[in-house]
Structures are given as structure tokens and as C-alpha cells.
Specification:
Number of strands: 2
Order of helices and strands: HHHEEHHHHHHHH
CATH superfamily of the largest domain: GntR ligand-binding domain-like
CATH topology of the largest domain: Four Helix Bundle (Hemerythrin (Met), subunit A)
CATH architecture of the largest domain: Up-down Bundle
Structural class: mainly alpha
Keywords: DNA-binding, Transcription, Transcription regulation
Radius of gyration: 21 Å
Shape: elongated
Domain HTH gntR-type: 14-82
CATH class of the largest domain: Mainly Alpha
Strand content: under 5%
Number of helices: 11
GO molecular function: DNA binding; DNA-binding transcription factor activity
InterPro entries: GntR_C, TF_FadR/GntR_C, Tscrpt_reg_HTH_GntR, WH-like_DNA-bd_sf, WH_DNA-bd_sf
Helix content: 55-70%
Protein name: GntR family transcriptional regulator
Length: 249
Amino acid sequence: MHDPLPPLKSRRGGRLGDTVVAHVVDRIVSGGYAVGTSLPTEPQLCEEFGISRTVIRESIKLLEEKGLVRATSGRGTQVLPRTGWNLLDPVVLEAQIRHDSELRVLDDLVEVRAALECEMAARCARVIGPEESAALARQLEFLATCVDDAGRYATEDVVFHEMIMAASGNQLGLAIIHSIHAKARLSGRYNGTPPPGDLAVSLAEHQRIGKAILAKDPDAAATQMRLHIVESWARRRPALHDRRTEPRR
């Protein structure tokens, strides 16, 4: 099962072309428009969505930029193989998450996030200065006051991680995490249903990360960050029939 895409007329905000793109991306990712086949013609899409050819052509260009299709004169617009899709594109990633019945995309996302953030935690431990150390310590103390408020804790959890990534100086890593993790957090499938007492366990994991960074121990910081990201996903990952409940290693 997957979360349905809202009807076209209910999606407000942004350009109309962007809304059309979201629906076509959804159909491509779900297999409604199979790889190697052609999209409906421009007149057919105009009639379906009730929009002009200009908007359809703009939408096709956006789909090409995302690596999903190629428009060829005389051959129409063909759906390209998945290997060329831009999975860092937020619209493509959102659709992949919604239609991924086995959670493979989210498993991969967690692995990528763990790899990047453990490296940034290690670098942070090496380069963090006195002011950043003090701010990180204060954030840990504040996080501890939020364990009885799941919404507040989630917000401050993100702040804690972003402080570490920013202090590491790895701007590219921070940008990648932002592009994939921010979109994943909007999915109920990624957030899952944490077990009772999960926030206390999570807090202890954050404290171990912070302790390693403040002690300027890069190896411990990397290890604790990876354990936290992988184990927290394992705790909240929706169970699948006869499937593992933790990311692939």
C-alpha cells in the first residue's frame, strides 16, 4: 500500500505545470506509464488536465530534467529506465517513497544518511570550536527536556543533527541530507510507529554522540552516529511480511 497523490484540483500553490509534473511522475514511478513506453500525446494530456499545450510542453521539459523521459521528434515522449532517474529530486523521491511497498528506497536513504552523517560527525569532532561545543552541549540539555513532547523532541532532534553537520563544514553533505531527509520526514512510512520509550532511547543515543564529539573523539563520534541512525530506523520501520525490519547492510 502507498499514500495516494491528492487529486489535481486539490493541489494548491506553485505553478500549474509543477502540479501536472507531480501527477505524471507519480504515474511513471508507479508503473502506470511503463519504462520504454510513450506518454499520451500532447492533445491527450491537454484534454485530461484541462490545460494548454504550452503548459504541457513546459511540464515535459521538467520531466526531462528529472531524467524520467526523453521527448523525440516523431517518436513522442518515452519513459526512460529507472537508472537515469534523479532520485535526489524531491518530486521523484516523494513518489518513490509512496510507491515503494518493500521500503527499499527508505532503507537506501537511511544507509546514505548514515554514511554521510557519521563522516560529518567525525569531522565535527576534529574541528569543533569552543563556541560550537558550548552550543551543542546546550542543545543536548534542551533535548532532554523534550522527551515528554514527541513533536517538540522531533524538531530539536533535527536541530541537533544540523548543528553537527554545520560544524563539520561539509556543505555538500549538508545539502544532500537536506534534499533527501527533509522529504522523507514528511512520509508517515519513514516516521513509522516508534515503540514505547523510544524517545528516552533516542536521547541516550544523542548523548553518546555529543559526548564523543565534545571529547574530540572522531572514531567514537562516527560509530555512535551510525548506530543511532541505523537503530532508530530499525525501531520505527514498518514491519513487512517475512521481511527484515532493519536496513540492508
